[in-house]
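call fold(seq) -> tokens
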Amino acid sequence: MIKAIAFDLNGVIITESGYFTHRLEQKYNIPNEDFFNIFSKVIKVARQPGCEDFFKLWQQGLKDLGLSISKEDFFDLWFSGESLVPAFLEYIKTLRKSGLKIFILSNNFKERTTYYRQNFTEIFDSVDQAYFSWETGFVKPDPQAYQNILTKNNLQGNELVYFDDVEENINSASNLGIVARKFEDLDKTKQTIEALIK
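ret:
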């Protein structure tokens, strides 16, 4: 019997109007590939607990790219391109009212989650718990990221449905017996959930 549903956050409940790297390229004329090389290294560290100041991790790389930007402008450019999917949020509220527990499981860093908690409060009012990698110490696809939800909520794998848009994360959750599905869009998600909870 399905008792809970967990969703990835970015690309599911929160969407982005184009990639941050593209916005940076348009505004500062920095090639997307050059910036992404730095991004892919820095983000791995930032998602871990103990990363006190994410912006400091960027400073040398930004300097190497010839970019002078303040911390505030950097994060404003990044986060300003993100927005909620209102219809998804309404659906989550409906699921909760039906008695299902709703969780968020997200690889994310301190500054971004702080921004979300301040600017997208309705997300956190609409779920039972949000699990962020920088707080839990478990970065997907680490199986412990999923096991943590099961353990803390006294759930068996087959009692939890999980949606993500990354195949590797889905496979890792499935290995624990979690009913993991690839997120495509809201309509398909509704169809999948309705079929599972009948």
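The chain has two domains: 4-15+83-196, 18-79.
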